[in-house]
Amino acid sequence: MKFVVYGQQGRLGVIQGDRILDLALAAHAGGTVADDGEVFTSLLTLIEAGDRGLDRVRRLLEQFEATDQPGLHTDLAATHLHPPFPGRRFAFAGGNYAAHVARGYANRGRPITAEEVYSKTREGKAGGFWVVSPPAGPHSDIPVPNSADGLFDYEGEVAVVLGKGGKRLSADRWENRVWGTTLVIDWSIRSHTEIAFQAPFYAHKNFDNSKSIGPWITVDEVDPNCCEVETRVNGQVRQRFNSRDMIHSFGELLEQISEDLTLLPGDVLSGGTGPGTAVDSTIADPDGHLPLDLFLKAGDIVEVTSPHLGSLQARIVASA
User: Fold this and answer.
1) What is the signed CA dihedral for 139, 141, 147, 153, rounded to 10 degrees?
2) Within the chain, which residue ranges are assigned CATH 3.90.850.10?
3) Which residue from 65, 110, 273, 302 puts its CA 20 to 30 A from 189's CA?
4) Angle subtended by helix axes 98-106 and 114-122, to nearest 10
5) Are strands 310-317 and 140-143 parallel, antiparallel or unpaired?
6) Rounded CA gap, 96 and 225, in Å?
7) CATH 2.30.30.230 occupies which residues in the chain?
8) Ramachandran quadrant class, 212 (left: phi over 0; alpha: psi -120 to 50; beta: rest)
């Protein structure tokens, strides 16, 4: 099942072929509004309803599979999709793909193998950060941040949406905590002088429209620890990797994050990016500066795709 938030009113729907079934209207048409209550009023309420909510969606899909009842369906290709973000918290793993990290160091004159990166990183805990600004959705315009100074980068990622919260989760029993899987673009500001650049207050990762999410959340159809991802900039393939190459798996990330923090249904965790970003594909000049050729500029089109997870596209625009 693929869940979307769509239309002018930001309604909750599920994709049915090339159409979107409006879940609230379908529940009303099916005569079960009293039973469903608030389940279909928002993405978060559906997530919080757990298995009961998903079972009801399955029945509605079966009930209205062949119907042409007016108003229940919307053409997927002709409607505006909003970010399928539950409105909770958004966490990101950092430096979680060995090839991405190794290429970044090598291009700055500090060669290290991906195997060495993997081994050293596994000796400690995973790194990462939280994002505080609401994410953009599919086909959004992403302004180049004023502070980017030409070093504006893309990172295609796979993310999981939690269906159950908790504290001190186990890396061996994490699957029942995950509600669905989606795509993310982590827009990032880089630095000429620092490989692992960290601006004050993590401003290089937190700015308006600093993340994109979508186009939908896939439930029950994909293993988030084994997703093929491809990133294209203006049609040119820049990234091609699989989430199975993460240094720390989603289960391990959830275990570490929840050691002293209670996670909530609707929290989103993105697993990091693979090789092929502008920063790990650019060789520094002799003076240590990075040529700007591969970094993003106004007019660029970035598209991240994955089987079952769809296509998440954005257009880069000049800062206001």
Assistant:
1) 30
2) 90-317
3) 110
4) 120
5) parallel
6) 13
7) 2-81
8) beta
The reported pLDDT for the residue numbered 35 is 61
Are residues 13 and 74 in contact, defined by beta-carbon separation less than 8 angstroms? yes
Task: Report the Cα 129 to chain-centroid distance in Å.
Answer: 14
Instruction: Check: CB of residue 246 under 8 Å from CB of residue 160.
Output: no
Q: What is the CA radius of gyration of the chain?
A: 20
Greatest CA span in the chain, whole angstroms?
Answer: 70
| Tokens found for residue 79 | 């409607």
Backbone angles phi, psi at 269, to 5 degrees: -125, 120
Q: CB-based contacts of 70: which residues, under 8 Å, 6+ apart? A: none
* Stretch (H or E) spanning 206: none
Per residue in 30-62, pLDDT (tens digit) is: 766 656 668 999 999 999 999 999 999 999 999
**Residue of 145, 83, 138 lying closest to 298 (CA atoms):** 145
- Structure tokens belonging to residue 72: 């229940």
Neighbours of 180 (CB within 10 A): 27
| Alpha-helical regions (H) of the chain | 23-29, 33-36, 43-48, 50-63, 98-106, 114-122, 250-257
Which pLDDT does position 188 carry in this prediction? 97
CA 57 to chain centre: 23
Kindly state the DSSP code that residue 127 receives in the 8-state scheme.
E
Considering the four listed CATH numbers 3.40.50.720, 2.140.10.30, 3.40.50.970, 2.30.30.230, the one that applies to the domain covering 2-81 is 2.30.30.230
Phi and psi at 241, nearest 5°, equal -155, 175
Pairing of strands 268-273, 81-82: unpaired
Distances (CA, A) of 159 to 22, 147, 169: 25, 27, 18
Inter-CA distances, 224 with 159, 181, 212, 218, Å: 7, 6, 18, 10
* Amino acid identity for residue 259 in this structure: E
Intervals of the chain under pLDDT 70: 31-37
